[in-house]
């Protein structure tokens, strides 16, 4: 804009200067012509006054020729013949020339004799002859040319100075507007600047004040919008659900961080691109298309990177969008799927575990009820088997209830100061008959350690560890229990010198109903849930479990409790 104004003003000034030079040159030329004419008339009058004082025409011509060589003087007799001429050339009759036809009138014409353009005037003398005086026009042209050249130089200087002054004035005039534009651009970027300074012009000040008020209002609105956007982004990016919005043309307009991470997608690079750039799964494509014909939305299940997701697609309309949009919500249902699988496995395993003792109980009971067995000793054996299997079922149901209780993530803990060494001693005393039956010696190395925990949880933890060690121990063997403090950790360690666990089974011993030696478990009445209960109790107290085992050497399980400040 500034450049355009400078060019426009410079062109106007240049036109004015050129017009001035042309008019001045024409006026100067006209004035010089008038001066020359006046001089010519005066010169003619002066020569005519002295005309009679000279003896002949040649003397007259020579006298004035010597005074002013550029002036041409011509004398004619009454018939028009040239009697004397300052040019010195013989001339023909001049009476037909315009200056002699119209005496006293000045004529300007080219002279073939002198090959010059001259200004002529003639007068009739008293003797009937004629006197003519002529002055070359070339005498005034150098002055006019010098004047024009000087005027051009002055004009160029004026134009240059004017252009500079116009630039300075334009810069000064446009500075408030530039500042205003810069202020508005800053506001558009969300960067509010201080109020623009006022100028000397009242009209401009009014505009600046209005712009300042508008800028402040816009900046406030933009700041509020940015704040709301940040809040929305904060919420969207911390959702445990994926959110994607497509416009009516099925182009991506919004995704949260969940979707970006799931599909390795950047909204900055792919915004307003077709959804095919983001989703390559045909099930997703079909769900989007099917949502056009569904009022309640479309639900599909997906498997991505070994995880399971549910996707709901709804075509919606909004007051700000008359055409509509597509709302896509992703939910990670991997944990739900795992829980469903675990529940399924649990019921299958539980049914299987309960079926065996029930079958045994029913078989023995039918034998007794049908009087197929009459020998008292056989009846006693069958009754003992029924009691054993019933006890096994009772243990299994109790362990299942305990495991279900510990798997409940919202289980409340009645934490008190628990003396772990006392817990180990109590469990040892309770299991002593079982150990003695297998001729296993229980050895303890206990430091007096107290932790904040639920007493029943610690009883269950220690009992399952020690019971498991006794069940899988060998006769004449040992079960060793150690309890000590490492400063940052409290270690509970239970080891045996029993059959050990194969390496391929070591990662699965904490699973529900998993048994390394099923025959031994059935014989001893093991439920396969003991170590699963141990794992869940440890999870409640953020304790770490370490298992070390070697076939025919033994097994050592260590529990590491973090020490609370």
Summarize the structure.
This protein has helices at 2-49, 57-67, 98-101, 141-188, 202-237, 257-263, 267-270, 282-290, 334-369, 376-407, 420-437, 455-471, 518-524, 530-540; strands spanning 72-76, 82-85, 107-111, 116-124, 130-136, 241-246, 252-255, 298-304, 307-318, 321-332, 415-419, 441-446, 450-454, 478-485, 489-496, 544-550, 554-562. It has 565 residues and is of the alpha+beta class.
Identify the notable features of this structure and list them briefly.
14 helices; 5 domains; Beta-Lactamase; alpha+beta; 565 residues; five-stranded antiparallel beta sheet
Strand order of the largest sheet: 2-1-5-4-3
Largest sheet entry: 5 strands, antiparallel
State the helicity in percent bands. 40-55%
Distance between the termini: 72 Å
Query: Beta fraction of the residues?
Result: 15-25%
Structural class comes to: alpha+beta
Helix count from the secondary structure assignment: 14
The CATH architecture assignment of the largest domain turns out to be 2-Layer Sandwich
Q: How many individual domains?
A: 5
